Amino acid sequence: MAATSFPGRIIIDHIPKTGGQALSTWLVERLGTGCVSPDLMGGHRELIETYGGHHSIISGHLHFFEGETFDPRYQYITCLREPVERVLSWLYFVLYDAMPTENAKPIKAAAEAFLRSEGKECPTDLVYGYSNYYVYHYSLIGDQSIYSKTKKSIYQEINLQSALSALNKYDVVGIYEDFSVFTAEVANLIGLEAPKKIRKVNVSTPRPPVETISKALRDRILELNQDDIRLYETVVEQKRQRKVVAPVPKSFFRWLHRGQKNRKMPVVQDEAEPNSRVHWVKYEPEETVLTAAFGSLSVPSPPSRLAPSEYMTVRVNITNEGFQNWRNGPCFPLRAGYRWLLPSGEIYQEQGVRTLLPATLISPGATMTIDMTVVAPPEPGSYTLVLTVYQDHFASLEQRGLTPAIIQVMVAKPDPV
């Protein structure tokens, strides 16, 4: 048996509240964080460009532009859930379980308004969450895709058929209500033993069963999801009528023919049978791209007044309040940095001096204290100093959950002696 690299790729297109995080958690347990990304959110192409070089399996809430096609280097997985169940679970998750960030506030308010009014209030912030999300999402995929917001029946039928056509391009389409079958299909695609049971993740704890909600709310969700219900029922019927053929992993040599570069992830392959199945092994990297950087910065003694262009050392506490280790290595180093804002909130200076974090690891719950170098703006005035952390090659960790330290500073010439 000879060791080689497996250049295959898989994308899990995770529709919210269809068990995607439970699937990803199982895969991480079997294959490691080096193979499987955490649950991400972003554009289809953007996630491939950002994480394709770090993870063999990319899992997340994907967004497609109309007419966007699948990447031929990847195999694609998705899962459907009974639409009324999915919408209700999603609404309660947004309202009670989603992180209470500033960006989430309007979405939480919209979910609360929808539930309180039994669906009479339909805020636009939420529209694709509670109304025909499946058809909207899948109908954007493919060079022949079309999506129309028009409610005329002919356009609704076109949207539905476009979504069904896109679903036929996926290598695995699972049904949430038959999750064990879905996970067995995924396991077969990857070359793993099917799990006997997968633990639930991100459960909407206070969600009532569909049969206990008011008739008015249930009827309203049904009314808003007629297209999704038709799509779901069609897919379920298609899977019932045909004996599902187990998906076949793309072969090693097919990938080489496509010119995909090999990754340094060891697998075992039989030299005597070069086209035989490739076996995955668990891979844990020494460092990785932070995708869930929940934490905060605090300044015990914040500066209140600086001279123009003055250099100052500011002591900062950085706390990891999340669940992911913050690894600080040569590939993706972590650096403390800052930006200056004008009273209007407009950015005066985007990037100041950056200070490399001294520790190689900040574990969940740990706090690191560093001395940052800060240079004041050259022009006198009132400013806001925002202290944060950056990961090289990527943006500020604020986009991944970090709360920066914010200080009001007056920049003025020293008083005459």
Give a topology summary.
Elements: E1 2-5, E2 9-13, H1 20-31, E3 40-43, H2 44-51, E4 57-63, E5 74-80, H3 83-97, H4 105-116, H5 127-130, H6 133-139, H7 153-167, E6 172-175, H8 179-190, H9 215-224, H10 226-241, H11 252-257, E7 266-269, E8 295-298, E9 305-306, E10 311-320, E11 326-327, E12 334-341, E13 347-349, E14 355-356, E15 361-362, E16 367-375, E17 381-391, E18 402-403, E19 405-411
Parallel strand pairs: 2-4, 2-5, 3-4, 5-6, 8-18, 9-19
Antiparallel strand pairs: 1-7, 8-10, 10-16, 11-15, 12-13, 12-14, 12-17, 17-19
Helix pairs in contact: 3-4, 6-7, 7-10
Could you please describe the fold and organization of this structure?
The protein has 417 residues and is α/β, with parallel strands linked by helices. It folds into 2 domains: 2-241, 3-Layer(aba) Sandwich (Rossmann fold), CATH 3.40.50; 295-411, Sandwich (Immunoglobulin-like), CATH 2.60.40.10. The protein is 28% helix and 23% strand. The chain has 11 helices and 19 strands. The protein has helices at 20-31, 44-51, 83-97, 105-116, 127-130, 133-139, 153-167, 179-190, 215-224, 226-241, 252-257; strands spanning 2-5, 9-13, 40-43, 57-63, 74-80, 172-175, 266-269, 295-298, 305-306, 311-320, 326-327, 334-341, 347-349, 355-356, 361-362, 367-375, 381-391, 402-403, 405-411. Strands 9, 12, 13, 14, 17 and 19 form a 6-stranded mixed sheet that branches. Strand 3, helix 2 (44-51) and strand 4 form a beta-alpha-beta unit. Helix 3 (83-97) packs across helix 4. It is globular, with a radius of gyration of 25 Å. The protein starts with a strand and ends in a 6-residue tail after the last strand.
